[in-house]
Every structure is written in structure tokens, then in C-alpha cells.
Amino acid sequence: MPSALENFVQELRRVGPDEADPLFPMYTALWMRFGPFCEVPLSSFMSMTCIEPHETLLAEGILVTFEPEMGRAIFVSHQWLGQDHPDPEFKQTRVLQEALQNLVTGVSSVSIDVTTEVLFGHPHGYSNADIIEKPLFLWYDFFSCPQHGATPDLSRTPAGLQLAIDSIPMYVQRCELFVILSPSVRAGEEDRILNYKSWRQRAWCRTESLARELCPAHDNLMIRVESSRHVALVTTLEKNSPGGGVFSFESDREKVAGIVRELVKQKLLYCLRKGDLVSYRFLLNEQFRIFRNLPIQVFDGFLIGCDEFDASHPSLLKAEVSKEPKLASFLYQMGFSHIAERDVGGFSPICYAAVRGDPLLLESLLRHRADPNDRVCKTCPKLGISRNTSLLAVCAFNGHNECLRVLIARRAGVDAKDAIKSRPLHAACGANNAEAVRMLCAEGADLSLKTARSCLSLTPFATACTMGCVQSMKVLLEAPQPLNLMLYLMMATQNASVESAATLLQARADINERFCPKARSTLWMVNAAMRLKHRWRPTTFTWISVNSWGATPLMVSIVAGLFDVAAFLIVARADLEIRNTRNKTALTLAEEMQVPDFLRMALSGAGRTADLAHEISGGPVTGSATLNMLPFGSLVTLEL
């Protein structure tokens, strides 16, 4: 007999989706229109030398209302460099102009982010021809949304601006391309460096990214622009909570909450109409993490009441339902007939409860004989789940530490391995969940260098380093840890930050350690495979691998495009003269990568260390280099 949820899906399909238009017209600026011979005339956007507000460009006739049949739209997500203006000195926008021009002329192309390649292989991306085959239009908040009469904190919002803000999910859906504009630039008013890492911390940027991740019309591929010649394809399954991001004005939290709730609701309905109950159930429970720190009432589900439950699901005793209304409602909304059931994705009710992170619900399921050592029994790539992932790993990765305590109290195995030999401690380290790391270590989680390794031969500490998870690293560094090649791992995967690099240096990692892994080790084989792949399908990862042998962390950071980290290593007195096995120095590689001028000058000896530290920290240096590069203001100090 079909469950109430399956009946609801059939009814949704019969009714069909609601077609809606944005509440405010989608104003865009034409970037380029291509003639029959692919001629590239100068366009309105490319001729800009400053960013004018919406009202000015509208009056000048530069803005047009975009419709899908007109061409292809680009949604530009960026940080504001000032409170009243997004780009007062035209720093960010000039980089975007040059990057797009380079793509059109073939000077550069869209590469693949290392993490994306490791997790997803070689996904179909965007060739230069794909990008320029249609007329392109840019959606950019400052000139696409009304600005006149708005205050910086949006306490006074013109009606048109509020409608435009509410329409952001629809704008994202109508844009085929999503561009993250995150070059390393100094914010004049705040006097600090903003880059991709700080972009990921901004609440509004997280909201826009989440809109792309949950967009039914497109995949979750995004294009990251870090310089005019460094453009990378990235994908993410993170669904970072906007509520955990940084708000310039606390009053924005409520505005973001409304957008996020609508995003999740529409994606849930989309999954139901498609009949994708696994994705529906996963998101229905994942919303508790997505809504974290936002004033939002979660969706319990779309089914009304629980009246049909006893009749349609006799396997759950009526007495049990009356005693556990929360459990009964959960099973009813999820479309499960009993506690031990599994869906086609390999999830049981308690697996979804672990995703949800409700300790009371988890305890209720355990009281009714659910297994604390249950696992997701199938691999779900689109959800980032490996086969045999344990409940402990799910809770540790999602930050559900109260649920972690419940499972540990029920003697869940702290060393349960999934299909890729990853354990709960790996999940906690990769998610930078320091509290979970402490809890699992206290319960005797295996830290052995011989046995506690994933299929990539990564220990929990190596996992934390690879992902650049500073808080997890610091917890594990309270006991001695092997530091060899840890700097390399975080650089090669493009996850290093100034703070993570400094954490390893303060633990006495060798700043000039050269990459030379043991023959036939996992790292040796991965590097060899990538060097071979580079011959016919070069990517960022293969380029890093080709230049890695004999390279120092400084050299790898340059090849990986981590220019802020490279500058930090120079300040920390990395050796500039070492050559890799291709006889290249850091300066040679920097010239090939066309790094920013301040970094090239420092490598050539034309720049002073104090000037370099000032460039990357946004402040004068006296006696020691205090690098305040992190968006949340953490300080890293190294004596010079």
C-alpha cells in the first residue's frame, strides 16, 4: 500500500508546478554580443570604469530587463568593499572585466578546482566556446537592484529593493552561470584583505551560494574568479548555513531567513515532483543545519496530521504511536512504515535522524530498538555520502554533537569504517568540528599511524591538514603528530590559509620541506597518475603535480594560486632559491602563474619584507609580522 507521502507526490504531479516571475524585473547589463563571425565589440559593461547605482544606469539606458530567450545571464556574487558602495576603487570589477576578456580571447580558460576534481573526477564544465556562444548579460546587485533611499543597514529599504532581494532565488535560477568574484583585494574602510576565504564567511554570499546549490534548474557548478587569469570551476555540497556567516548588520539576519526558507521549500517541492524521495528526505532533515542561527520555523513536512498513520502502517504498534507522537510524526512525514525500513538510497529512519541532529528523536528511535551502529548502506555521490557511513560520522560531520553523545552512550563504534575506510574522526576533522574530535579521542578513537588511515592513506590529522581545518588541527596537535608533508597536502589541495600554515609552522613543521614521497606510497602513486594525466587533459591538479617534485611549500602555494599564503611564507623566511626537479625556483613559477605584482617583487628581492607583510595584512609591521588576514579577525604572529 502506498504511503501518505507517495500519495502526496502523485497529487503534486497532477497539479503541476506554479510558474512564478520575479517580484522585481531582472535588470542586467549587456556584457558582450557576438556577431556571426564571433566579433567582440566593446559593450556597456566592458566600458565601465566605475560602478554606478541602478537608477543612474537605468536612466542612461544601459540596463535591460533580461528574458531567457535573449541569451545567457551571469549572476555575480561578491563581497562589498565599502559600506555604501560595493567597489569604490573599481578593484574587483576590473578583475572581472579582464578575466572575462581573457576567456573570450583564449588567453585563459576555466580550470577545475582541485577539491572538485578529487571528489567528482572531471565534471563537464564550461569551455570558452560554451561561454561565448550566446549574448551575455550580468546581474550585479548594485546596478541590478534599486539603491535610492536605502540605508547601509537596510533599516530603510525602498519597496523595489525589498522586492529585488526577495527575488534573488529566481534571479539565480534564471542565470545559467554563477560567478564568485573573489580576488585578493584590500577593503579600504576595513583595511584588511578580502578573498575567497572571506567570501565564504559572508552571510549574504552564503545565501547566494545556497541559492545556486538548491537551484532546481542548474547543477551546483560555480565559476570562481581570483585574478584575471585564475578562473576555476568549483562545486560544493556544503550548504553552509547563512546564519553562521558574518552579517555587517544584524538586521539583515531576518531578511536572509526569509530567503533561505523559501529556497528550501521550493527545493523540497521540486524533489517531490521529481519523485526523488531520497533527496527530499535528506534535505527535509538537513534543513535543521541550514537554518542554524536563523529565526526560521523548520518544515516538519507537507503532510497534514497523522490520522492515516495507524491504518496505512500497521507494523508500528498503536500503543507505540500514542507514547511517541514525535516519532510517529517523523515516520509519517518521511513515508516510512517501520523503524527498520530502508529506502532506495540506503537510508533508514535513524540515518535521517542523524542528519537532522535532534537528540530527542534519536533517543526515541533507539528506545524502539533502532541500531546505534546503523549505517547508510549505499553510496550517494550527490549527497556526499559513502557506502557504510556510520551514524557517528554523519553527526560528527554535521556538527550534531549532542547526538554524538547519545550514540556514544549507546556504545556506537567510534572506529566504524565506511567504504573508503574513513572513520568518524576523519569526518570530525574534515568538518573542523573540534568538540567532536575531543569527544571521539576521549572515547579511544584510533589515532595509530598504521591503522587509522582512509583509502587515500590519510590519518585524521592529515585529513584536518588537507582540508585546512585549523581548530581540528590544534586539538590533535596537543599530542605529538607527524608533520612531514602536511604543508604540502594543504597547499596542493588549495585549502591552505595563513592561519593553517602558521599552525603547522608553530608546531615546527619544516617551511622548506621538499616534496619527495616514498616510492609506491599512496601519495607517490596519486602524483604519478596526475602527471600522466597532464599529458592529455591538463587541470589545476595535474599542473600542481607536475611541478611538485622537489618543490617547497612556497613553490606549491604559488602553483596552487594561494598568493596570500605564499606571501605569508616569504614573511616567515622561506628559502627563495630552492629549485624543484624541473629546475624552477619560486620566482620562475610565479612568473609562469602571473602572480600579483607585490608577490613577484618580493620573490625577486625588489620588495621589502615589511612592505610585503603590510600588503597582506593591511597594517604596518614593527618588530614582528602580525598578519590579520582572516575575515573573522584571528591574529597570526611570527617573529621576524
Describe the structure.
The protein has 640 residues and is of the alpha/beta class. Among the domains are: 21-274, no CATH class; 505-640, Serine Threonine Protein Phosphatase 5, Tetratricopeptide repeat (Alpha Horseshoe), CATH 1.25.40. Helix content is 43%, strand content 9%. It is built from 32 helices and 14 strands. The strands form 4 sheets. An 8-stranded mixed beta sheet has the order 2-1-5-3-6-9-10-4. A two-stranded antiparallel sheet has the order 7-8. A two-stranded antiparallel sheet has the order 11-12. It is globular, with a radius of gyration of 26 Å. The chain starts with a helix and ends with a strand. Mean pLDDT is 84; it is low at 33-42, 307-319 and 618-640.
What is the residue-averaged pLDDT? 84
Q: Report the end-to-end length measured between terminal Cα atoms.
A: 73 Å
Helix/strand class: alpha/beta
What share of residues are in beta strands?
5-15%
Shape, per Cα inertia axes: globular
Helix content: 40-55%
| Parts with pLDDT < 50 across at least 5 consecutive residues | 33-42, 307-319, 618-640
User: Can you list the strand order of the major beta sheet?
Assistant: 2-1-5-3-6-9-10-4
Radius of gyration: 26 Å
Largest sheet descriptor: 8 strands, mixed
Number of discrete helical segments: 32
Number of strands: 14
